[in-house]
Amino acid sequence: MSTSLVWLRDDLRVADNPALLAAVDRGEPVVVVFILDEVSEGIRPLGGATKWWLHHSLAAMQDKLHRLGGELILRQGKAPDVLRALIRETDAGALYWNRRYGKPERDMDAAVKEYAKASGLDAQSFQANLLFEPWTVRTGNNTPYTVFTPFWKSCINRPTPPRLPLPAPTKLRAPTAQPESDNLEYWNLLPTHPDWALAFPHRWTVGENGAHAALELFLTTRLTRYAKGRDFPAEYSTSELSPHLRWGEISPFQVWHATDHYRREHPSAEINTNAAKFIAELGWREFSYHLLYHWPDLATVNFDGRFNHFPWGEADPEILDAWQQGRTGIPMVDAGMRELWQTGYMHNRVRMIAASFLIKNLLVDWRIGEAWFWDTLVDADPASNAASWQWVAGSGADAAPYFRVFNPLLQAEKFDPKHDYLQRYLGDYEHPLLSGYPMPIIDLLASRNRALEAFKTLGDIPRSIRPPVVDH
Predict the structure, then answer these.
(1) What angle, rounded to 10 degrees, do the helices at 348-356 and 331-343 form?
(2) What's the CA angle centered on 403, arms 400 and 406, to 5 degrees?
(3) Helix, strand or coil, per DSSP, at residue 162
(4) Alpha-carbon distance 183 to 71, whole Å?
(5) Which residue, 371, 364, 403, is CA-closest to 386?
(6) CA gap 134, 284 in Å, rounded
(7) Which residues lie below 8 Å from residue 340, measured CB to CB, with a gap of 6+?
(8) Which of 63, 76, 177, 210 has the greatest CB tally within 10 Å of its CB?
């Protein structure tokens, strides 16, 4: 008997997984595979922190599938080659997967679908990881959006809301013999010498169960103070769902409808305001993927062409090391970078401060910071990471005013007035001579003035947004 093959990527969940459900509904034995592909052309290798998360997420997915009567087959290599081999090994009659939105990934998926259909398979892809497909959200001029507010209004004012989450299958029909699988431990996704992720398990519960627990905790204990509290890094006011969304342990459909259900069950102006703000932040994720879909080189090329002429300085290795290790002598920047080291995560307000300091005070090219976050954040994804760095740099979409320079000292006083966040990651930072805290590596006022002079050079250059990639 033929099998239905499910190809998992960044959708490591059993509930609201359209590809998995389609395979189960087909009625034939189901083979589920995850392929670690870092060798195909154009595929960006994973960062160290996302590899750590992936290891534990795959282990959680293995357990989920095993409880349903199935297995998770692990393979490594060029995904199209691995899939062709698996199709032959399993006598597959169908191949299902959930869509990705980067250009190299889309090209790969299109080629795989062409091969599978030519081989007589039922090959289908599904919408699973975005509420709104990027090619369906267009301006009145039938062009992609480059400003968030009208983009999100267009999304939420549709006549029908995003679809309801799909149920999890209650049982998987396994083939008589499962294909051979790699041992997850042999993939060496975890750091060893040194094990810089030693504290991560104390911070995160990886996997689908952990994702839903985090959402439940947020809705029941944090949502009421989200709109204001989300800017204060010492407070626990955010959902911290971003790494779970990164690997698809929870879907945006589940987040949307769970939030809407909670809002309806607890009607009040306060809940409505905070829920709307939270869903709008989910919208920023959608907007980032909208940009990535239409501008595939978002992580490497300035969205605003004027910044091709911006006078970035050479990245002094010692200065860059100080920023990466949290030794700049600027407390809020250092606290954020040390939070990143300790947890694989950084509060969003502090991400903006740390990024602004690197790009504008130190005049380091934003792509260097983007690459560092790609390697060290557990939630680094190809859309949000790149779009956020370009936004802070001023070169990105909706980056107004592009010449804004965050003052990290004023930001600390405004958003950490009791210094709880600073003390959490810096200890007794207020007594630098006693604690050995470093002196500032740069004068904030002088470096701000230098940045503003650099931005003036863009004034004579017409703003130019690169045309989007034509939809296929």
Answers:
(1) 120
(2) 95
(3) coil
(4) 12
(5) 371
(6) 13
(7) 346, 373, 376, 377
(8) 210
The pTM for the full model equals 0.96
Q: What share of the chain is helix, strand, coil (3-state, %, to 5)?
A: 50, 5, 45
What's the CA gap between 184 and 76, in Å, rounded?
10
CB within 8 Å of 65: residues ≥ 6 apart: 14, 32, 71, 72, 172
Q: Encoding tokens for residue 237?
A: 């006011």
Question: Could you tell me the two tokens for 134?
Answer: 């990027």
**DSSP H helix total and E strand total for the chain:** 20, 5
Strand ranges across the sheet with 72-76:
72-76, 30-36, 3-8, 92-98, 122-126
Backbone angles phi, psi at 300, to 5 degrees: -130, -20
Residues 290, 402 contacting (CB under 8 angstroms): no
Cβ–Cβ < 8 Å for 262, 278 = no
353 near 411, Cβ under 8 Å? yes
Alpha carbon distances (Å) from 264 to 21, 152, 277, 315: 28, 21, 16, 51
H runs (alpha helix) in 91-238: 103-118, 148-156, 200-203, 208-217, 226-229
Q: Please, what is the angle between helix 348-356 and helix 366-376, to 10°?
A: 140
Q: Supply the DSSP symbol for 15.
A: T
Using an 8 Å Cβ cutoff, are 369 and 386 in contact?
no
Reduced to 3 states (helix: H, G, I; strand: E, B; else coil), residue 136 is: helix
Please state the separation of Cα 467 from the chain's center in Å: 24
CA distance 93 to 4: 6
- Cβ-in-10-Å burial (0-12, 13-18, 19+) of 402 comes to middle
Look at residues 86, 78, 93, 81 and name the one whose alpha carbon lies nearest to residue 33: 86
For residue 122, count other CB atoms closer than 10 A to its CB.
Answer: 15
- Domains defined for the chain, CATH in brackets: 3-128 (3.40.50.620), 130-163+209-294 (1.25.40.80), 305-456 (1.10.579.10)
Q: Given this model, what pLDDT does residue 428 score?
A: 64
Structure tokens at 45: 């290798």
Residue 276 burial (CB count, 10 A): 14
Rg (CA), the chain: 23
pLDDT tens, residue by residue, 366-403:
999 999 999 999 999 999 999 999 999 999 998 777 78
Which residue type, as a one-letter code, is found at position 352? M
Q: What is the pLDDT of residue 354?
A: 98
List average pLDDT for each run of 10 residues in the chain, which is 472 residues long.
95 98 98 97 96 98 98 98 97 98 97 97 98 96 96 96 97 96 98 94 97 98 96 96 98 98 96 97 98 97 94 92 96 96 97 98 97 98 97 90 89 95 82 67 96 89 77 52
pLDDT value, residue 472 = 47
